[in-house]
Amino acid sequence: MKYNQLTTCIYPALVWKVKWIKTHVLKLKSCHCWDLQMHCILHTGRFLLRNTYQRTWPKCCSSFSKMMRAVCVDKPGGPENLLLRNIPRPQPKDGEVLVKVHAAALNRADLLQRRGLYPPPDGESDIIGLEVAGTVDSLGPGVKEGWKPDDRVMALLCGGGYAEYVAVPEELLMPVPHNLTFCQAAAIPEAWLTAFQLLVFIAQVKEGEVVLAHAGASGIGTAAVQLVRLFGAVPIVTAGSLEKLKMAEELGAAAGFNYKEGNFAQGVLDFTRGKGANVILDCIGGSSWEKNVNCLAMDGRWVLYGTLGGRAVEGDLLGKLLSKRGHLLASLLRSRSLQYKADLVKAFSHRVLPYFSDQAASLRPVIDSTFNLEEIAEAHKRMEANKNMGKIIVNVVSQNQEISN
């Protein structure tokens, strides 16, 4: 036990007791009897200090046993600023479930938060990590959904995923399909719920429509391709290599375009015989706006959910969008209300989750690579270099620990 930990637990209580002595016992000064004053001070002080020790020591010792490893960022910057530390384990509040994290998944938002460009919403954990899978550890007061310890769950988070434990509102938990590992399940909540939200809640995609998904080999891109197929629409993608395009096509993309080698807008127009894409899922933003609007169909929906290619736009965007009666829609999931996310989780669980575990297993999370929690910096470097095809997963609990548990 470290000295500073001990003093942190006991010192505030001692200060309060000393103040009590000064306030109440020293009132005896008016009796003009110094011996009586000292007798009261000494005996009262001994009692209060002994009482403080007996009450505080067990609490501070038990708090040390409820620590956890977590990835912290003291200073915004590169992957080298990700530090693994022991910090207090969160306590579930009313309506929350404490989850023991077995695996977490990386998202582009994690890189932005590490650099100080995407802070968590007010009141949320400043630990990075938006999706995890694990087991229920304990329930906070007022939990109503019937979760119990050791249930296998996956969770959508506002933060806190890069840690051994995280407290989650019960509405944002989903059961892990029986045929999926924790690593596979960790790849679902943020990526698949984002894609589902963009397609269903925002764009309201219809059967037979053509959907262009940028970054078709990313976590959200691979989810979008499969969901578009599930909903009876036609997915097409862009990506930065032939290898990534091939993987997207294996997942069900009807066509793919290498944005580094040609004009993807012309490719989309050729594929659709000049009509254009009915829906565009855009995580790029500024650098591709003109090509996007050029290949957008009449009355099409252009859904912006990221600005990896910049935020600035120059040119006649509004005029071109107006001429096509286009709808420019924007959405961020992390800052949405708890009720919105709860509705999203409920809809996804009803419409999509069964397809991960049916006999055909028609949906599958795509895993690029796995790292241990101690290797979190290397995981970030891989995503930052755009090397991943699918999700990068972080093992928080080792396989040996899972077997022993």
TrEMBL record:
Transmembrane segments: none annotated. The keyword NADP applies. Gene3D superfamilies: Medium-chain alcohol dehydrogenases, catalytic domain, NAD(P)-binding Rossmann-like Domain. Pfam families: ADH_N (PF08240), ADH_zinc_N (PF00107). GO terms for molecular function: NADPH binding; quinone binding; quinone reductase (NADPH) activity. The keyword GTP-binding does not apply. Residues 77-394 form the Enoyl reductase (ER) domain. SMART domains: PKS_ER. Keywords: NADP, Oxidoreductase. It comes from the Eukaryota. This is Enoyl reductase (ER) domain-containing protein. It comes from Anabas testudineus (Climbing perch).
